[in-house]
């Protein structure tokens, strides 16, 4: 019997001024897509595919929003670490 896929979870707070807007969502997807793991994002009861810009934008996550991010796959730890760094660095935005 095969082992079930590795699953990791974390909560990330949106700290950039504009929240999870188009450019920030595109950067999130760019980082998430580097990994084989499935990435799911939950905000205010709504779930999004972390590898879909439109899905992420539909969350309408403003500054201060807390996102529950789940990664499932062999590289789940690495994926969450990279996404946490991206979000913590305000998606590379000045503010």
What can you tell me about this protein's structure?
It comes from Spiribacter salinus M19-40. Belongs to the HPr family. Keywords: Cytoplasm, Phosphotransferase system. One of its GO terms (cellular component) is cytoplasm. One of its GO terms (biological process) is phosphoenolpyruvate-dependent sugar phosphotransferase system. There is one protein chain. The protein has three helices and four strands; from the N terminus they run βαββαβα. The protein is globular. It starts with 6 loop residues before the first strand and ends in a 7-residue tail after the last helix. The protein has a single domain, classed as HPr-like (Histidine-containing Protein, Chain: A), CATH 3.30.1340.10. α1 runs antiparallel to α3 (76-88). The longest helix has 13 residues, at 76-88. A hairpin with a 2-residue loop joins β2 (38-43) and β3. The chain is α+β, with helices and mostly antiparallel strands. A four-stranded antiparallel beta sheet has the order 1-4-2-3. It is 31% helix and 25% strand. The model has no long low-confidence stretch (mean pLDDT 95).
How would you concisely characterize the structure shown here?
Keywords: Cytoplasm, Phosphotransferase system. Its main location: cytoplasm. The chain is of the alpha+beta class and 95 residues long.
Q: What brief labels describe this structure?
A:
4-stranded antiparallel β-sheet; 4 strands; alpha+beta; 95 residues; globular; 3 helices
Topology:
Blueprint: E1 7-13, H1 22-32, E2 38-43, E3 46-49, H2 53-57, E4 66-72, H3 76-88
Antiparallel strand pairs: 1-4, 2-3, 2-4
InterPro entries: HPr, HPr-like, HPr-like_sf, PTS_HPr_His_P_site
Subcellular location: Cytoplasm
Family: Belongs to the HPr family.
